[in-house]
Structures are given as structure tokens and as C-alpha cells.
Amino acid sequence: MLRPGLLAAALALAAPAAVAQQIAPQIVGDGIPASLTGQPGDAARGRAIVANRGIGLCLLCHSGPIAEERFQGDLSPSLAGAGSRWSEGQLRLRIVDGARLNADTIMPAYYRTSGLQRVARNFDGKTILSAAQVEDVVAYLATLKD
Q: What's the CATH number where 114 sits?
């Protein structure tokens, strides 16, 4: 029988795996067709996340049609026209875990908790973006048509 302290430690160790099981979205082909929240995201909130250098850091690597943001990145594809190039499901998978499509990607997995490297303890078992934030970014990117 486990002592109470050991039981708490065992549960704490199991918690990230349990979280990972709860957030595992259904991947179909090259996308995640279903919303992570069951609801559509809000494009205005998504634009704010993309532009915010403290949350998603999207503009560190990408450029996009956000004229007021200076010093946009050029390491990755422009976000302009993303809604024309990819479906919402394809956009969702790229945000959730781009490594599923390209193992060599430099883009972080914004909604994955397992298999990550060099994660600070206070972020272990947590996603970068919440499910609602992922949906908001998907909604914004889907509006970016050529």
C-alpha cells in the first residue's frame, strides 16, 4: 500500500499523461477536422493572439497582414492567404502539432503536452495555447484569403 505522500507523488507524475489523453484531438489525414472546443473560434481574438509577442510569438517567424506590427519574421511562410492555402482542419493541425506534418519544423507544438524537450517545470503538462485560443487563431487564419 502506498503512503499518502507517495500516492500524491504518483498522482502528480501521472497528471501530465492524463492531461495529454484528454487533449488528444482526432487527426484525419493532414488535418484535425473537429473544433477542439466544439465551438468556432473568434477571429478578432485570434488576430490579437497572432499579433501578441507575449502569447503565440507567431510574428517572430511569420509575417502577416498586421501592418501595425513591426519587425515581422521571414523564417516561415507568410500568414497572408493562409485561409486560401489550407482548410480549417489543416490549419488546426499545424497549430496543434506541426511536427505531425514535418518532423523538422521549427514551429512549436501549441497544443501538445507529451514528447517535448527542455520544458520548464512550471510548464510541464501544460499547452502553450488553450483549446479556445487555438480555435481563435484558426478562425483568424481562415479569414486570410488571397
A: 1.10.760.10
